[in-house]
Amino acid sequence: MSGDKINLERMMHRLNQLALCSRGSRGITRLSFSRESECANRLVRDWMREAGMVVRMDPLGNVIGRYEGRRPGAPAFLIGSHLDSVIEGGKYDGALGVVAGIEIVQTLRERGLRPDLPIEVIAFCDEEGARFHTTLLGSRAMAGMLREEDLCARDSDGITLAEAMRSFGLDPSRYTDAVRDPQSVAGYLELHIEQGPVLEREDQACGAVSGIAGAARCRFRVEGRASHAGTVPMSLRRDALAGAAEIVLAVERIAGRMPSVVATVGQLRVFPGTSNVIPGAVEGTLDVRSMEDEQRQAALKEICEEAERISRRRGLSFTCRTVMEAAATPCSARLVQAVEEALAKRGLKPLRIPSGAGHDALAMASLTEVGMIFVRCRNGISHHPDEYVAPEDVGTGTAVLLDAVLELTAAETAEKFLNKAVKGANTP
Ligand code: HGY
Ligand code: MN
Ligand code: MN
Fold it and tell me: Which atom of ligand 1 is nearest to the CA of 82?
């Protein structure tokens, strides 16, 4: 069996159907626990069933399809990605990995093939964190890293994650039931667009991911004093937005001095936010990443110290809270090798690319061995309506995924998993 047998036309049609599950008219906006995400979940559930999988939704809202293997009770090999998007993002980020996972199982089924290990395809509910700023929600829950306090995160309308989950028919108090037993899984492989320029520069459709950058996501608040915009002299103001603006420039300056670090203030909310009131408070998000954990931690420390200095000088207060932190994570040598063998099978170079972007694989690495396959995307553009992947690259990436999964779920390469008695795991 070779990866050439996938049905590319079906995949492109499904990617276009998923793209319709979006709010607004510019790019893709499909936030977690929204009408748009329910629309996507429904499609994915139907496709998983069509592919011969038994489908369930876990307590966090991850949609999981299972295709039994020939060895009953053997740990499952996991593939998948996320269904949520950023605001006005692209139609391939996350969705491509879910559609590709379903496609390879459907291809196996249509050819009457059953691997030794069972395969599970996972459509994670919230990787981006675009709504609650709590990224990797679904995968962190599965890996046992979600904390009760995460359920109290609020979106821009003040709705908590727990309330959003309840409105979706989920019981947030059962979040710990989403945790998987490490004994019940045999690895996780995610296909994802590169969201960067390397594959284009190397003129190659796809490559193996060597590791994923560590990240810290923070929320900060700058507090001053709201006052009349017409009567307070400039020298007597405690303008929270002017202070926040100086802090944003300090973030850019500090990260700019540290080659392996990137830092972004992606969101600023001004209070009370009317044109004739001096801003009394500003709330913002801070995203700091690096392949070097010490560099990331040093950058965050220096940013906060500089923000406090700026605030003191301006008679403001500055507070900052880390809402999510993940260490830089290497991919498993076993999975990288399987991907490189699959690349070589197609005459592709064994390219290894570090991922500056975060992925569910970052959280899943706390549960099991992880690997990723990157697919070329035009000009490296992502998190933007212009995100684009050529259909032939979708086909090549999915074929590489199928070949790698066939290798990783076969008895001779998975024997260390096959004779592992699955100790009461919650194998669904
Ligand atoms: O933010 C990221 O790196 C990913 O797209 N969630
Ligand atoms: Mn993504
Ligand atoms: Mn993304």
Answer: 6
